[in-house]
């Protein structure tokens, strides 16, 4: 067997090991072995001639970003990738249960945050100025960070 055919076989085996790394949970062992086998194929190319080795090195360097990008995009679609990578979760932002101008009665002391009863629904609010005692009528003047801001009526 010639060195060129051995280099080609090593490149194919290395690529298969890298591809198998995507499907088997080996913790990177197959990936490292694949890279070492590809490096051995490169050494075989340099043993054939200097120019064959340089050509193989240039081809490997030129292809590596494309292969890496393909593997990064392909990996989350594999069964192992779906188990290891968190999936996107979309959530619908709920509007606040009160609106500006709505009035309620404080249930707890607001210093500056506490609970207010708006139509038999307790909601955590923030007072606009200082401490507000329980039982005081308040009015929503703003909604900041999804929390109503109230002041004394």
Tell me about this structure.
The structure is a single chain. This protein is an alpha+beta fold. It contains 4 helices and 5 strands, in the order H-H-H-H-E-E-E-E-E. Strands 1-2-3-5-4 form a 5-stranded mixed barrel. Helix 1 runs antiparallel to helix 2 and helix 2 runs antiparallel to helix 3.
Short description:
With 153 residues, this protein is of the alpha+beta class.
Topology:
Elements: H1 3-23, H2 29-48, H3 50-74, H4 79-84, E1 103-106, E2 113-118, E3 121-127, E4 137-144, E5 147-152
Parallel strand pairs: 3-5
Antiparallel strand pairs: 1-2, 1-4, 2-3, 4-5
Helix pairs in contact: 1-2, 2-3
List segments where confidence is low: pLDDT < 50 over at least 5 consecutive residues: none
What structural class do helix, strand and pairing data support? Answer: alpha+beta
Beta-strand content estimate: 15-25%
Report the strand count: 5
How are the strands ordered across the major sheet?
1-2-3-5-4
Shape verdict:
rod-shaped
The SSE string, one letter per element, is HHHHEEEEE
Features:
single chain; 153 residues; alpha+beta; OB fold (Dihydrolipoamide Acetyltransferase, E2P); 5-stranded mixed beta barrel; 5 strands; 20% strand
